[in-house]
Design brief:
Strand order of the largest sheet: 2-1-3-4-5
Number of helices: 24
Strand content: 5-15%
Largest sheet: 5 strands, parallel
Shape: elongated
Structural class: alpha/beta
Length: 597
């Protein structure tokens, strides 16, 4: 699909338009209206649930209501509209192939989102599917602003959005997903597919994801399998799924071999036993003599009879060296050398030129074009091989330098990964795997500064488990730890975008609510309180539920720092306990109370 495609008018959008009109995101009753709209179409409901999977929770969503509760009305509504666009158009048009690439991009975006741990996979799938309609259409369908911004081309004016970072992350994921979609949907007989760009882009993506080749190939193939399966489920024309090796072969690229790196790490050096040489000459006799001399010396030899053919073969086989005659039809030796030097692959090739006696005066021109050495014709095989031996030393040195570079890059990547793991460990609570107190305070400080500079609201939720000491005294601290982990799981599953739960210590948890008023935070706090109250904890001899007392506070003009905000929420928690526990109290409405309560 082209990025400037506008949504097709008429009957194909009837279901989508009806859904958009029936469900007004953000209004009271939107969740019920969306559930009702989907209940009228069981097939779409089943597809939505299958795509949502376990996003936003620890187990697959069992119902549309549960999916909406986890991801919010806007995310499920946007996904439903995207699926309706695809399905309705496929039902009314024989040209179902046009949706294959958007579907490939959608699955690629979802997989990358999960792999990187960034954003919401369902939203990545949605915008991957409908990106081609452009930001105007997504705005008309009342998609969330962050999704509209993610598909807005760079340089075009964007509306203000508090989730700007999420939009940028999603836009980058869409860019990478586009490369994966090109590779999945590419047809070797089609023109316009830049296979070299696709191949190098996949290698760059693999390094970004910090995956080895086998793991990245597995990820690529998994995306391809999902794409192929869902083409059939949605009634699309099912296209063949290429492997990673096929993509690289179409590009004429051979990904760097890890054997050299492993040999260096084992303390040995890799030496080329023979070169892969492309011999080029339009004179059959001269070409035969050249090929025979090279093969006798132990080199693998490929031949071509003109420069154009040689350029194609070089890009397919990546030779170590090219030996070419100067004067040839279609493309001479100098032009062949220039063409190779313009490509990343050709810059490392050793190029030896065969010249006639009358061409020696122009040899400076040859060196200026990038030629490494030359031999005059008719050539002496011993002289030719002697010149080539010097080139072999250069090639072997380049191989060792490249292998060393890979080792260094691998070590840097491993150190970077270790650093990130250590940083994550320093900011993660070991028991619950939620962010710890250090991270929570740091996040609150950052949000405080952001709210101050942008004049945005900021709220905090403080949570204390009721009668937790009784759990420890009755069942023991191991069971108490088990209860804390269960509470953490419920908090993680029921917080939404802009809300981050952390464990402060003991039985206290904290939720930072960016760009949120006290009234909105009260709704979020009640959602968390209710979820924990109805969650049955079973295990280690414990059977039952726990309740929480929750305090909510909003950043007010008179507050000196984020510490004041925490104290206000803490005061509201004690007020909640004093009023009977298992309740939510706002700091603005809390009465003075002794902490002994």
């Amino acid at each position: 699909m082209h990025t400037n495609t506008q949504p097709p008018p008429g009957e194909r959008l009837a279901g989508c338009a009806a859904l958009a009109a029936a469900v007004e995101p953000g209004l009271e009753g939107a969740s019920a209206a969306l559930s009702a709209a989907l209940a009228a179409d069981p097939r779409t409901s089943a597809v939505v649930l299958a795509l949502v999977g376990s996003d936003g929770g620890t187990a697959p969503a069992a119902s549309i209501e549960e999916a909406i509760g986890r991801l919010g009305v806007q995310a499920v509504r946007a996904l439903t509209i995207a699926l309706d666009l695809c399905a309705s158009e496929c039902r009314s048009s024989l040209e179902t192939r046009r949706w294959s690439r958007p579907l490939a991009q959608a699955f690629a975006a979802r997989a990358l989102c999960r792999q990187l741990g960034v954003g919401v996979p369902v939203e990545a799938f949605t915008v991957g599917l409908v990106q081609g309609f452009g930001p105007a259409a997504l705005t008309r369908w009342k998609f969330p602003a962050r999704l509209v911004q993610a598909v807005t081309p760079p340089g075009r004016e964007r509306d203000f959005d508090p989730d700007e970072d999420e939009s940028v992350d999603l836009a980058r994921i869409l860019g990478q997903a586009s490369l994966l979609a090109d590779s999945l949907c590419g047809d070797p007989s089609r023109s316009g597919i830049d296979w070299a760009r696709a191949s190098s882009g996949l290698e760059s993506m693999r390094e970004i994801l910090e995956l080895d080749r086998a793991a990245f190939a597995t990820l690529f193939e998994r995306i391809g399998r999902e794409w192929s399966e869902w083409q059939g489920r949605l009634g699309l024309a099912v296209l063949p799924v290429p492997t990673m090796d096929e993509v690289h072969r179409r590009a004429g690229a051979i990904p760097a071999d890890d054997e050299v790196v492993r040999a260096l790490e084992a303390g040995s050096t890799a030496t080329l036993k023979g070169l892969r040489i492309l011999a080029v000459d339009d004179e059959p006799t001269s070409l035969k003599l050249l090929e025979r001399a090279l093969r006798k010396a132990g080199h693998e030899t490929i031949t071509a009879v003109n420069g154009s053919e040689a350029l194609r073969i070089a890009l397919e086989t990546h030779p170590h060296a090219v030996i070419a005659d100067w004067m040839m039809p279609e493309m001479d030796g100098i032009d062949l050398c220039k063409a190779l030097r313009r490509s990343e692959l050709g810059r490392s090739v050793f190029f030896l030129l065969l010249t006639g006696r009358g061409e020696e005066e122009r040899i400076v021109e040859a060196f200026d074009a990038g030629v490494d050495d030359y031999v005059t014709k008719p050539f002496n095989p011993k002289v030719l091989l002697a010149r080539l031996k010097g080139g072999q030393r250069v090639i072997e040195l380049q191989e060792r330098v490249e292998a060393n570079r890979r080792v260094v890059l691998k070590q840097v990547a491993e150190m970077g990964l270790l650093t990130r793991k250590l940083r994550n460990a320093a900011h993660t609570d070991a028991l619950t795997e939620l962010p710890n107190r250090r991270h929570a305070i740091g996040r609150l400080e950052a949000e405080w500064e952001s709210a101050d500079s942008a004049s945005r609201p900021l709220s905090a939720i403080l949570i204390d488990i009721d009668h937790f000491k009784k759990v420890n005294d009755t069942y023991g601290h191991d069971v108490g730890d088990f209860v804390l982990r269960e509470v953490a799981i419920v908090l993680r599953a029921n917080t939404r975008q802009g809300e981050e739960a952390a464990r402060l210590g003991g039985e206290e948890f904290f939720v930072t609510c960016s760009n949120t008023t006290e009234a909105q935070a009260l709704v979020a706090a009640e959602r968390l309180r209710a979820a924990i109250a109805r969650h049955v904890i079973t295990g280690m001899g414990f059977q039952g539920s726990v309740t929480i007392s929750v305090g909510v506070a909003q950043r007010m003009p008179g507050m000196a720092s984020h510490d004041t905000l925490i104290k206000a929420a803490d005061h509201a928690v004690y007020a909640a306990k004093a009023e009977g526990r298992n309740r939510v109290v706002a700091a603005s409405a809390a009465s003075p109370v002794s902490k002994s309560a």
